[in-house]
Design brief:
GO biological process, one term: purine nucleoside catabolic process
Catalytic activity: uridine + phosphate = alpha-D-ribose 1-phosphate + uracil
CATH topology: Rossmann fold
Structural class: alpha/beta
Helix content: 25-40%
Shape: globular
Distance between the termini: 43 Å
Largest sheet: 5 strands, mixed, barrel
Strand content: 25-35%
EC number: 2.4.2.3
InterPro entries: Nucleoside_phosphorylase_d, Nucleoside_phosphorylase_sf
Bound molecules: 1-O-phosphono-alpha-D-ribofuranose
CATH superfamily: Nucleoside phosphorylase domain
GO molecular function: purine-nucleoside phosphorylase activity; uridine phosphorylase activity
Length: 289
Amino acid sequence: MPIKASELILNPDGSVYHLNLLPEHLATTIITVGDPDRVGSVTKHFDSVDFTTHKREFHTQTGTYKGKKITVISTGIGTDNIDIVFNELDALVNIDLEKREIKSKLTSLDIIRIGTSGSIQKDIPIDSFLISEYAAGFDSLLHFYDSEHVQYFKISEALKAQTNWFVKKSDPYVVKCSDRLLKKLSSGETVIGFTATNVGFYGPQGRILRLAIQDNELNDKLANFNYEGKTITNLEMETAGIYGISNLLGHNSLSMNAIIANRATGEFSDDPKGIVDTLIKYTLDKIVD
Ligand code: R1P
């Protein structure tokens, strides 16, 4: 049965609905960034850029870096956008868009996020590079899918117990990166961490401007969490969704974080753009290594 027009929505030119891409526009190695302007910060290092498009917050460029074809795409902020981007990237390689049928031979993409993040551990300073080995999702995205087989329940149960999790917020889930990509992209220059992905930037991450929050101690509790030596290291807004959906779809993903803030010490990087640029160059060179 072909997938209905209301479920797999295509634009008049046959491209996928939100990303505006056709299958030939995509490489099998993909870098995601949050900020649409960061796409150019990655591709300025390329030998050539052969394709560019954008729609809403989803800007895409495909080109080659040291001879390797790579696509760079912005996701905007949050795991709700990750649902859209990752399902449409998968459709581009694993669904025959003309026949509207799932292909018999599936393709696994390598998808690497290059993003910014705040550390919650004093000993992970600003300007470090952190790779998320595990991620805890405080959003609800993964629970809308048949996803129990990709979740680490012992860790999420310990997390809820040790933080006295307020159940009205969500039911946290824990997921893991691609071990192959972790090995390929880590080095003495990177810290391996456990990232908490939250649904907002202010209250959900414990920032108080004018609004009181439900639990003033949450970041401290997260920093003190310990499950068999695993501790939560940093906060951002996409990684758990990326790992969860990638693992469900059979893709390999890894999240590279430039630590631009330290929430435990109150510091913020003097040069956030510079540290992101250095992480971009590091990541590109590791991809082609
Ligand atoms: C918040 O300022 C945004 O920055 C972080 C968070 O995950 C969130 O998307 O990542 P990016 O720099 O990749 O957007």
